[in-house]
Amino acid sequence: MLEEAAKLLEEQPLCDRCLGRLYARLGRGWNNKDRGRALKMSVIMWLHREAAEGSVDAKKRFRIVASNAGEVGRELYKHLYGEDPGEARCRICGSMLDKAIGELAEEAAKVLRLYDARKIVVGARVSQEILEAEDEVKARYGIKYGESIKAEIRREVGKLLRDKHGYTIDFDEPDAMVIVGFPSLTVEIQNNSLLLRGRYWKRGRMISQAYWPTPSGPKYYSIEQAAWSLLQLTGGETVILHAAGREDVDARMLGTGRPMILEIKNPRRRYISLGELEEAANKGAPGLVEFRFTGRASRRDIQIYKEEAQGKAKVYKALVLLEEPVDRDRLKAAVDTLKGATISQWTPRRVLHRRRNLLRRKKVLDMDCTLLHSNLAECIIRTEGGLYVKELISGDEGRTSPSLSEALGVGATCVELDVLGVEAPDIELLEERGSK
Ligand SMILES: [Zn+2]
Predict the structure, then answer these.
(1) Mean per-residue pLDDT, 304-327
(2) How sure is the predictor about 435, in pLDDT bands with cuts at 50, 70 and 90?
(3) Per-residue pLDDT at 428 exceeds 80
(4) Is the peptide bond before 183 cis (omega within 30 degrees of 0)?
(5) Residue 16 CA, ligand 1 centroid: distance in Å
(6) 386 phi and psi, to 5 degrees?
C-alpha cells in the first residue's frame, strides 16, 4: 500500500482528501483527510530515509512527491535541501475541496435558516470534469476501497451542519434537502411540505374540497380556500387537502368530521404548535369550515389515507322527498328489506362524465327512517364505503338496485345529504392509542 501511495503521488498531485478518499473504506472513525495525510507522511518518511542513506534516485522521487503532496512534503524538502519544490494543484479537485466543504456548510446553514428547516438531508452536485478525473485515477490504479467525491461532500457537509449548526440529519422525513454544488459552490434547497393530520367539518353546502378556479372566479367556495388562512402563519405558497374520501359538494360533513392531511407547500415557518396552527386555520371560514389537527403526518401517510378511506364504513343522514304520501308501516317494511342488503350499483349517471361505468356491490349495514311528513322522511344510513347514497334512495332509473324507491314502489329523491361519520384510517387509530 505504501508503494501504491508513493506511485500515486509520483504520478500526479493529490490533496489529502482526494488521496485519502481512494482508501475510504479502510479503517474506521477517520476522515479522508486523516487517511491522505497519514499516507503522505509515511511515503515521505520512507523517501527521506532512503535519501538520507545516499539514494540519489530516492531524492529525485522525494522532490516530485514533495511537490505533489503539498505543504506536508514541501516544508520538509525545503528544510532539508534549501530548495522549494513548489506545490502542484490536486489532479481531481484542484486543491479546492477541503475549503469548499467548509464554505458550503456555512452557506447551507444560512439558507436552511430561511426555511425553518431542522431535519435535513444533504445532496451533492459535482461537475462532470471532476467526476471523470476521479474515475480515471480509480481505474488506472485499480482502486477497490474508495468512495465517490459526492459521498464525501454529502457526508462532510452534513457533519458540519450537524455538529456546528445543530441540524439533524434525517433521511426518512427531512424538512428540506440541501443540494450543494462543487466546484460551483452553489446551494439549492428542496423545501418539503408541512403535513398536518386531522379532520375537517363542513357545516355549509355547496362547498368543494379542492380549490376550483374558473375565469369568473372559483366555482364553489372550497375547504382548501378556508385553509388558506394558514399561509400567512406558515409563509407557505399553497394548501392541498388530502382527504380520506369526499362528500358531494352539496353534502355537509358533520359528526365525526372527515380524516384528512393538509399539505402546506414551501413553508417558511414549520415549527409552530398544533394549537396555533389550528387557530389560524379556523379563522378561514368560521362557522362554515372547521379544522382539528391531531399531529404531523409523513408523506407516505397520504397514500394510506386515500387508499384506506375507500373501504371504511360511512354514516349518512338523508332527507328524502317522496312522490306520493306513504304511511309509517309501509316505509318501515321497505327499509327492512334494505337493511343488510347488498346493493348492485352502476356508476351513477351524474358522475358518468368523469368516472368509468362499472358495477359495484356494496352493503347497507344499517338503515333507519323516520317519517317527518306524509311525503318527507329522514333516514340514517350506515353503509360500506363507496356506496352512492343519493342513488340508494332514488334507484337512478334502475342503475342502483334494490333502492328505497324500488322497495317502496314510490319515487324518492334525496334532497339533502349530510355525512355524519367517517372511520379513521388505521394509522390514525394506532397513533391515537399510542399517544394515550
Ligand atoms: Zn483534491
Answers:
(1) 90
(2) very low
(3) no
(4) yes
(5) 7
(6) 95, 0
Whether residue 213 is predicted with pLDDT greater than 50 in this model: the reply is: yes
Q: What is the CA(158)–ligand 1 centre distance, in A? A: 19
Domains of the chain and CATH, by start? 2-81 (no CATH), 97-191 (3.30.2300.10), 194-309 (3.30.70.2510), 314-422 (3.30.70.3190)
CA distances (Å), origin 278, targets 2, 228, 281: 64, 12, 5
Q: In angstroms, what is the span from residue 94 Cα to ligand 1's centroid?
A: 6
Residue 291's H or E segment, with its range, is strand 289-296
Reply yes or no on whether the pLDDT at 274 is more than 90: yes
Q: What residues have their beta carbon closer than 5 A to ion ligand 1?
A: 15, 18, 90, 92-93, 97
β-bridge partners, 169: 120
- 200 within 8 A of 278, measured Cβ to Cβ: no
pLDDT at 436 over 50: no
What's the CA-to-centroid distance between 48 and ligand 1, angstroms? 24
Three-state SS string over 170-205 comes to: CCCCCCEEEEEEECCCCEEEEECCEEEEEEEEECCC
Q: Are strands 400-401 and 342-346 parallel, antiparallel or unpaired?
A: antiparallel
The whole-number average pLDDT for the span 418-427 is: 82
State the pTM of this model. Answer: 0.84
In total, the chain counts a number of residues equal to: 436
Per the annotation, the verdict on 301 as an active-site residue is no
**How many other CB atoms are found less than 10 A from the CB of residue 171?**
9
